[in-house]
TrEMBL record:
Species this protein is from: Cardiocondyla obscurior
Coiled coil residues, start to end: 590-617
Family: Belongs to the SDA1 family.
Keywords: Coiled coil, Nucleus, Protein transport, Ribosome biogenesis, Transport
Compositionally biased residues, Acidic residues: 493-503, 513-531
Function according to Swiss-Prot or TrEMBL: Required for 60S pre-ribosomal subunits export to the cytoplasm.
Protein known as: Protein SDA1
Domain SDA1 C-terminal: 715-760
Residues covered by the SDA1 N-terminal domain: 61-423
Superkingdom to which the source organism belongs: Eukaryota
BP term (GO), one: protein transport
Keyword Translocase: no
Amino acid sequence: MVRHNNQLPDNLPQLQNLIKRDPESYKEEFLQQYQHYKSTLEVFHLEPTQFNKSLDELIIFLAQVAHCYPGDLKTYPQEIVDILQTHNIILDNEMRMTFCKALIQLRNKSLLEPTALLSLFFELLKCQDKALRQFLQTHIVTDIKNVNAKHKNAKINTVLQNFMFSMLKNPNVKAAKMSVDIMIELYNKNVWNDIKTVNVIATGCFSKVTKVAVASLKFFLGTDPEEKDSDDSDSDDEPSVREIMMANKVNKKTKKRQKQLKKAKQTFVKAKKKKSKAPQYNFSALHLIHDPQDFAEKLFKQIEKNNDRFEVKLMTLDVVSRLIGLHNLFLLNFYPYIQRFLQPHQREVTKLLQFIAQAAHELVPPEVLEPVLKTLANNFVTERNSADVMAIGLNTVREICTRCPLAMNEDLLEDLTRYKHYKERSVMMAAHSLIGTFRRVMPDLLHKKEKGRPTEANIMIKSSKYGEIRASEFVPGAEVLYNQPAKNNKENDSDEEDDDEWIDISTSSKEETSEEEESNEEDISEEETSEEEIRINESVDLDETTRSSICKNENDKTLLDSETIGTQNTCEENSQNRETNQVLRKKNVLTKQMKKAQKLEKRIKHKSEKNEELTAERKTKASEISTQRILSDKDFRKIDVALAKQEVTYAKRGVKRSHDQILTNQNGELVKLSDIENIYKKRKHDKAARQQSVKKGQETRDKFGFKDRRQNPLCSTTNREKRKGKVFSMLKQKLKTKVKRSFREKQIALKNHLIKQRRMK
């Protein structure tokens, strides 16, 4: 075999490897290649549109070894930048990509500043090369992310942010769109998650370019779920620690494998720590806008002015409604604008209903939202529509009333609650949910039948007036902790855990018996007064009837006899006396009734004063605990249990609580579309839906039969396992055994053999 001579001038990868190991020894070979690069570059300047393979290889080679000879390659980065600036459009796609890759390698070796590259890369966006644009975008994002990896570099960030913000106003559409996309991606990756970035993206909503405006609006509406799924899938493809440990155990022990195992263990520990940490919640981008009122007004004005597509208008309305709901803004023209489109046949009507429910809050005047509720009742909640439309209308009314209960009047609520007896189940359930919300929010508007049996929590609710703000001075339910020590022993931990699992709602028997006795005494006293009144009235009636009969008899006698006039005068005097007696007796009866009523009022007043004293005590206890003591998680658990008991235990007769309870909005800041479209609790499945659910279940389910215990299903198997999968015709020859003779055949053979031997003698 002939040994080849030195091939370094032709084999650039080999030379590159040797230079990185020992730069000084191979400097002559490097200078030779550098001279060759200069000559090929001059040739390239003559025909910049053509692809030059030798120049392509030399550019990558010099970029790889630039850190070894920084003095000799001082002008090399600027040469590539000049080529891209002068011939950016006419260059061949592959050559342009090679130049960009070389610059990125130089930037990764810290031989270039990031600001110098950014301006050049944004100029290259003019080129009609989609692959290059995506490549540059990923590089810019990763480069800024790496700059802020250990700590946020404020100096570089301000320079880069100012440049990116200036590119947003660039007349080049692609540059503006790319700058918005980069800022959004950096915000989602928690690199540039400051107020300045959010407010600059907010200016993109007013861009004349539709793509830029839509990207900015989508940013404020939330993150893209597809990106999250892709991140999860990338993490699933990576090998686990168990697999690497198994491979390291079986394979040959090398330094490379040991490093891989060490790195995998470190990443595993890091991920475990990250999971155990408390989750960090970032503010929504809508919370970080400087002037939300002005921003919402401008967006709404843009909807009225511009003739955009329906989808863009929907996104803008969604952002405006979220702003109004989150910041409690006053944009009174918004409600009549959407009110025009509230028809069952309207395209995407459920989203419009969601927007108007999101935009409702406590500070909106009730006169503004009343016509909206009436249009919903007239257009949706009518029997001429289908049951689904009626249910959606009732759900929307419920969502609006949870945020602004003062918009509902008593007559309209009474009409809507009558649908609880409707024949369709969806409408009936929607009406019941509306009644349930008003039981929680404003029970005074409901009819007596719809109020239900009052609980302790319901009695605390007070209907607030428009613009009324209630500030709580204490933690509601903190009076439970008054007689308990601040430090909880370890012995009580198990009891508290049990309390979390089961909530015992049985009150003390003494309280129940005492309160029942009091209520029974009141009932007995009321019954006694009513019975006494009936007896007195009956006695008065009897006296009147007897006296009238006597007077009649006497008058008859005087008329029949007609003897003297004196007798008539006496009868008249008697009748007058009787009338005066009747009036006096009636007055006596009235005075007795008044006295008994006064006694009852005094009792009720005395009892209410006692209850007020009790509530005042509870209030003072709760305020004392909440001001003088730091509540732990266990204390809050006990308070939650006490509040849960109040929700379930029915109120006793005569109990009135003066302290307010802050009603937290269970639906959160935004309205979910599923809350409005929730017509059925469980929809009926057709055949296609059932088949789809069956297939979905089969994907996650383990296969029946033999379970392969190997970690990697693609690794090799034993011959015994392979034999199980083979066809019988392949194994038939091997399974053939030697055919043995029977005992009789052996006897005959032996006999013949002996006879043969005897003959031979």
